[in-house]
Design goal:
With 298 residues, the protein is mainly alpha-helical. Helices cover 76% and strands 0% of the residues. It is built from 13 helices and no strands. Helix 5 runs parallel beside helix 13. The radius of gyration is 19 Å and the shape is globular. Residues 1-6 have low confidence and may be disordered.
Length: 298
Protein backbone atom coordinates (compact mmCIF):
# COMPACT_ATOMS: atom_id res chain seq x y z
CA UNK A 1 0.00 0.00 0.00
CA UNK A 2 1.21 3.50 -0.81
CA UNK A 3 2.45 5.29 2.28
CA UNK A 4 0.84 8.61 1.36
CA UNK A 5 -2.54 7.02 0.56
CA UNK A 6 -2.60 5.12 3.86
CA UNK A 7 -2.14 8.42 5.72
CA UNK A 8 -4.73 10.49 3.84
CA UNK A 9 -7.51 10.08 6.46
CA UNK A 10 -5.14 11.32 9.18
CA UNK A 11 -4.04 14.22 6.99
CA UNK A 12 -7.70 15.11 6.38
CA UNK A 13 -8.40 15.10 10.13
CA UNK A 14 -5.53 17.51 10.79
CA UNK A 15 -6.68 19.72 7.92
CA UNK A 16 -10.13 19.93 9.54
CA UNK A 17 -8.40 21.45 12.58
CA UNK A 18 -6.54 23.85 10.29
CA UNK A 19 -9.82 24.95 8.67
CA UNK A 20 -11.39 25.79 12.04
CA UNK A 21 -8.25 27.64 13.13
CA UNK A 22 -7.81 29.62 9.91
CA UNK A 23 -11.50 30.62 9.95
CA UNK A 24 -11.21 31.86 13.53
CA UNK A 25 -8.07 33.78 12.63
CA UNK A 26 -9.90 35.55 9.78
CA UNK A 27 -12.59 36.80 12.15
CA UNK A 28 -10.11 37.84 14.84
CA UNK A 29 -7.86 39.52 12.27
CA UNK A 30 -10.77 41.63 11.02
CA UNK A 31 -11.59 42.70 14.59
CA UNK A 32 -7.96 43.60 15.40
CA UNK A 33 -7.53 45.74 12.28
CA UNK A 34 -9.38 48.66 13.88
CA UNK A 35 -6.29 49.44 16.00
CA UNK A 36 -3.27 47.58 14.62
CA UNK A 37 -1.67 47.44 11.18
CA UNK A 38 -0.60 44.06 9.79
CA UNK A 39 3.03 44.34 10.90
CA UNK A 40 2.03 45.24 14.46
CA UNK A 41 -0.44 42.36 14.54
CA UNK A 42 2.22 39.92 13.30
CA UNK A 43 4.64 41.17 15.96
CA UNK A 44 2.26 40.62 18.88
CA UNK A 45 1.04 37.34 17.43
CA UNK A 46 4.60 36.03 17.07
CA UNK A 47 5.66 36.89 20.63
CA UNK A 48 2.57 35.19 22.03
CA UNK A 49 3.33 32.21 19.78
CA UNK A 50 6.89 31.98 21.17
CA UNK A 51 5.47 31.71 24.68
CA UNK A 52 2.97 29.06 23.56
CA UNK A 53 5.57 26.97 21.70
CA UNK A 54 8.06 27.10 24.58
CA UNK A 55 5.35 26.36 27.16
CA UNK A 56 3.73 23.48 25.27
CA UNK A 57 7.10 22.15 24.10
CA UNK A 58 8.35 22.23 27.68
CA UNK A 59 5.38 20.25 28.95
CA UNK A 60 5.68 17.76 26.09
CA UNK A 61 9.45 17.44 26.54
CA UNK A 62 10.16 18.34 22.90
CA UNK A 63 12.23 21.52 23.33
CA UNK A 64 15.39 19.46 22.88
CA UNK A 65 14.32 18.89 19.27
CA UNK A 66 14.95 22.56 18.43
CA UNK A 67 18.19 23.03 16.50
CA UNK A 68 19.76 25.34 13.92
CA UNK A 69 20.20 22.81 11.12
CA UNK A 70 18.83 23.98 7.76
CA UNK A 71 18.59 27.49 9.19
CA UNK A 72 18.50 29.02 5.71
CA UNK A 73 15.56 26.81 4.79
CA UNK A 74 13.70 27.91 7.92
CA UNK A 75 14.41 31.53 6.96
CA UNK A 76 13.12 31.03 3.42
CA UNK A 77 9.98 29.32 4.71
CA UNK A 78 9.23 32.01 7.26
CA UNK A 79 10.00 34.92 4.97
CA UNK A 80 7.62 33.46 2.39
CA UNK A 81 4.96 32.96 5.03
CA UNK A 82 5.51 36.40 6.58
CA UNK A 83 4.91 38.06 3.20
CA UNK A 84 1.85 35.94 2.49
CA UNK A 85 0.36 36.44 5.96
CA UNK A 86 0.75 40.21 5.92
CA UNK A 87 -0.87 40.43 2.50
CA UNK A 88 -3.68 38.19 3.78
CA UNK A 89 -4.33 40.28 6.89
CA UNK A 90 -4.37 43.42 4.73
CA UNK A 91 -6.77 41.83 2.24
CA UNK A 92 -9.37 40.82 4.86
CA UNK A 93 -9.76 44.50 5.80
CA UNK A 94 -10.37 45.54 2.18
CA UNK A 95 -12.65 42.94 0.57
CA UNK A 96 -15.22 40.35 1.77
CA UNK A 97 -13.78 37.40 3.68
CA UNK A 98 -15.16 34.85 1.21
CA UNK A 99 -13.44 36.61 -1.69
CA UNK A 100 -10.11 36.59 0.18
CA UNK A 101 -10.41 32.86 0.88
CA UNK A 102 -11.45 32.07 -2.70
CA UNK A 103 -8.37 33.86 -4.07
CA UNK A 104 -6.20 32.22 -1.43
CA UNK A 105 -7.37 28.88 -2.82
CA UNK A 106 -5.02 29.38 -5.76
CA UNK A 107 -2.21 28.45 -3.37
CA UNK A 108 -2.27 24.74 -4.37
CA UNK A 109 -1.86 25.80 -7.99
CA UNK A 110 1.25 27.75 -7.09
CA UNK A 111 2.44 24.71 -5.12
CA UNK A 112 2.08 22.63 -8.28
CA UNK A 113 3.98 25.21 -10.35
CA UNK A 114 6.75 25.77 -7.80
CA UNK A 115 7.20 22.12 -6.84
CA UNK A 116 9.26 21.26 -9.95
CA UNK A 117 11.82 23.90 -8.99
CA UNK A 118 11.86 23.33 -5.22
CA UNK A 119 10.94 19.64 -4.88
CA UNK A 120 12.55 18.34 -8.10
CA UNK A 121 9.20 17.36 -9.59
CA UNK A 122 8.34 17.57 -13.30
CA UNK A 123 6.44 20.55 -14.72
CA UNK A 124 3.87 18.66 -16.76
CA UNK A 125 1.33 19.84 -19.31
CA UNK A 126 -1.39 19.02 -16.80
CA UNK A 127 0.12 21.39 -14.24
CA UNK A 128 0.33 24.12 -16.86
CA UNK A 129 -3.34 23.53 -17.73
CA UNK A 130 -4.22 23.65 -14.03
CA UNK A 131 -2.41 26.99 -13.73
CA UNK A 132 -4.41 28.42 -16.64
CA UNK A 133 -7.69 27.21 -15.12
CA UNK A 134 -6.68 28.67 -11.78
CA UNK A 135 -6.04 32.04 -13.41
CA UNK A 136 -9.49 31.89 -15.01
CA UNK A 137 -10.93 31.16 -11.58
CA UNK A 138 -9.14 34.22 -10.18
CA UNK A 139 -10.70 36.40 -12.88
CA UNK A 140 -14.17 35.03 -12.09
CA UNK A 141 -13.76 35.66 -8.35
CA UNK A 142 -12.17 39.10 -8.59
CA UNK A 143 -13.83 40.29 -11.84
CA UNK A 144 -11.21 43.05 -12.01
CA UNK A 145 -11.94 46.44 -13.50
CA UNK A 146 -8.71 47.09 -15.38
CA UNK A 147 -9.20 50.83 -14.95
CA UNK A 148 -9.56 50.44 -11.17
CA UNK A 149 -8.13 47.17 -9.86
CA UNK A 150 -9.02 46.44 -6.22
CA UNK A 151 -5.89 46.38 -4.09
CA UNK A 152 -7.48 43.88 -1.73
CA UNK A 153 -7.85 41.34 -4.55
CA UNK A 154 -4.22 41.84 -5.57
CA UNK A 155 -3.12 41.33 -1.96
CA UNK A 156 -5.25 38.18 -1.58
CA UNK A 157 -3.85 36.68 -4.78
CA UNK A 158 -0.32 37.59 -3.69
CA UNK A 159 -0.83 35.96 -0.30
CA UNK A 160 -1.54 32.68 -2.09
CA UNK A 161 1.93 32.73 -3.64
CA UNK A 162 3.51 33.34 -0.23
CA UNK A 163 1.53 30.51 1.33
CA UNK A 164 2.47 28.17 -1.52
CA UNK A 165 6.16 28.80 -0.94
CA UNK A 166 5.65 28.29 2.77
CA UNK A 167 3.87 24.96 2.18
CA UNK A 168 6.65 23.65 -0.05
CA UNK A 169 9.42 24.66 2.34
CA UNK A 170 7.42 23.16 5.22
CA UNK A 171 7.14 19.87 3.35
CA UNK A 172 10.93 19.80 2.95
CA UNK A 173 11.49 20.69 6.61
CA UNK A 174 9.18 17.93 7.87
CA UNK A 175 11.64 15.41 6.41
CA UNK A 176 14.35 16.51 8.85
CA UNK A 177 12.74 18.44 11.73
CA UNK A 178 10.02 17.99 14.32
CA UNK A 179 6.92 20.17 14.41
CA UNK A 180 8.18 21.83 17.63
CA UNK A 181 11.37 22.90 15.86
CA UNK A 182 9.50 24.20 12.80
CA UNK A 183 6.96 26.16 14.85
CA UNK A 184 9.63 27.59 17.16
CA UNK A 185 11.56 29.11 14.28
CA UNK A 186 8.30 30.25 12.71
CA UNK A 187 7.44 32.27 15.83
CA UNK A 188 10.96 33.59 16.50
CA UNK A 189 11.80 34.63 12.95
CA UNK A 190 8.44 36.27 12.33
CA UNK A 191 8.72 38.16 15.61
CA UNK A 192 11.99 39.61 14.31
CA UNK A 193 10.48 40.36 10.88
CA UNK A 194 7.48 42.00 12.54
CA UNK A 195 9.57 44.15 14.87
CA UNK A 196 11.70 45.41 12.00
CA UNK A 197 8.72 46.21 9.76
CA UNK A 198 6.44 47.61 12.48
CA UNK A 199 9.13 49.57 14.30
CA UNK A 200 11.08 51.09 11.44
CA UNK A 201 9.33 54.42 12.11
CA UNK A 202 9.75 54.13 15.90
CA UNK A 203 5.99 53.89 16.47
CA UNK A 204 4.41 50.54 17.43
CA UNK A 205 0.79 50.77 18.56
CA UNK A 206 -0.22 49.07 21.81
CA UNK A 207 -3.59 47.27 21.63
CA UNK A 208 -6.33 48.34 24.02
CA UNK A 209 -7.47 46.04 26.83
CA UNK A 210 -10.71 45.27 24.98
CA UNK A 211 -8.75 44.21 21.91
CA UNK A 212 -6.27 41.92 23.70
CA UNK A 213 -8.52 38.80 23.57
CA UNK A 214 -8.72 39.13 19.78
CA UNK A 215 -4.93 39.52 19.52
CA UNK A 216 -4.49 36.38 21.63
CA UNK A 217 -7.06 34.59 19.47
CA UNK A 218 -5.14 35.51 16.31
CA UNK A 219 -2.00 34.02 17.81
CA UNK A 220 -3.61 30.86 19.18
CA UNK A 221 -5.60 30.12 16.02
CA UNK A 222 -2.60 30.96 13.83
CA UNK A 223 -0.29 28.66 15.77
CA UNK A 224 -2.97 25.97 15.91
CA UNK A 225 -3.51 26.23 12.17
CA UNK A 226 0.21 25.85 11.50
CA UNK A 227 0.47 22.90 13.87
CA UNK A 228 -2.43 21.18 12.09
CA UNK A 229 -1.16 22.10 8.61
CA UNK A 230 2.41 21.02 9.37
CA UNK A 231 1.18 17.72 10.81
CA UNK A 232 -1.05 17.15 7.79
CA UNK A 233 1.89 17.81 5.45
CA UNK A 234 3.92 15.22 7.34
CA UNK A 235 1.27 12.61 6.48
CA UNK A 236 0.58 13.42 2.80
CA UNK A 237 2.02 15.36 -0.17
CA UNK A 238 1.46 19.10 -0.39
CA UNK A 239 -0.47 18.85 -3.67
CA UNK A 240 -3.01 16.62 -1.90
CA UNK A 241 -3.14 18.30 1.52
CA UNK A 242 -3.57 21.90 0.37
CA UNK A 243 -6.78 21.43 -1.69
CA UNK A 244 -8.50 19.97 1.40
CA UNK A 245 -8.61 23.54 2.66
CA UNK A 246 -11.42 24.31 0.17
CA UNK A 247 -13.97 23.35 2.81
CA UNK A 248 -13.07 26.65 4.49
CA UNK A 249 -14.93 28.77 1.89
CA UNK A 250 -18.54 28.08 2.99
CA UNK A 251 -17.51 28.35 6.64
CA UNK A 252 -15.88 31.76 6.18
CA UNK A 253 -18.64 32.98 3.84
CA UNK A 254 -21.23 32.19 6.52
CA UNK A 255 -19.14 33.90 9.23
CA UNK A 256 -18.74 36.98 7.03
CA UNK A 257 -22.49 37.14 6.44
CA UNK A 258 -23.47 36.65 10.10
CA UNK A 259 -20.77 38.74 11.81
CA UNK A 260 -20.02 41.47 9.25
CA UNK A 261 -23.14 41.62 7.08
CA UNK A 262 -21.27 40.57 3.93
CA UNK A 263 -23.42 39.45 1.01
CA UNK A 264 -22.97 35.98 -0.46
CA UNK A 265 -21.62 36.52 -3.98
CA UNK A 266 -22.45 33.59 -6.25
CA UNK A 267 -19.52 34.42 -8.56
CA UNK A 268 -17.09 33.88 -5.69
CA UNK A 269 -18.37 30.33 -5.39
CA UNK A 270 -18.34 29.82 -9.17
CA UNK A 271 -14.73 30.99 -9.39
CA UNK A 272 -13.78 28.89 -6.38
CA UNK A 273 -15.40 25.87 -8.06
CA UNK A 274 -13.25 26.42 -11.16
CA UNK A 275 -10.14 26.68 -8.99
CA UNK A 276 -11.17 23.58 -7.04
CA UNK A 277 -11.76 21.66 -10.27
CA UNK A 278 -8.31 22.58 -11.51
CA UNK A 279 -6.75 21.40 -8.27
CA UNK A 280 -8.79 18.20 -8.29
CA UNK A 281 -7.08 17.29 -11.55
CA UNK A 282 -3.80 17.45 -9.66
CA UNK A 283 -5.19 15.26 -6.89
CA UNK A 284 -6.42 12.65 -9.37
CA UNK A 285 -3.11 12.65 -11.25
CA UNK A 286 -1.16 12.31 -7.99
CA UNK A 287 -3.36 9.41 -6.89
CA UNK A 288 -2.83 7.62 -10.22
CA UNK A 289 0.93 8.16 -9.97
CA UNK A 290 1.00 6.77 -6.42
CA UNK A 291 -1.01 3.70 -7.45
CA UNK A 292 1.31 3.07 -10.38
CA UNK A 293 4.34 3.45 -8.08
CA UNK A 294 2.85 1.05 -5.55
CA UNK A 295 2.21 -1.56 -8.25
CA UNK A 296 5.77 -1.17 -9.53
CA UNK A 297 7.19 -1.70 -6.02
CA UNK A 298 4.97 -4.55 -4.94
Amino acid sequence: MDQHASNLPLAALWMAGAIVSFSGMAVAGRMVSVELDTFELMTYRSFISIALVVGIGGMAGTLGQINTRNFGLHAARNLSHFAGQNLWFAAITMIPLAQVIALEFTSPIWVALLAPFLLSERLTRLRMFVAVMGFIGILIVARPDLSNIELGSVFAAGSAIGFAGSAIFTKILTRHHSITCILFWLAVMQAVFGLVCAGYDGDIAIPSVSLLPWVVMVSCTGLGAHFCLTTALSHAPAVIVMPMDFARLPVVALLGMVLFGEALDVWVFVGAAVIFGANYLNIAAEARRNRALARAIY
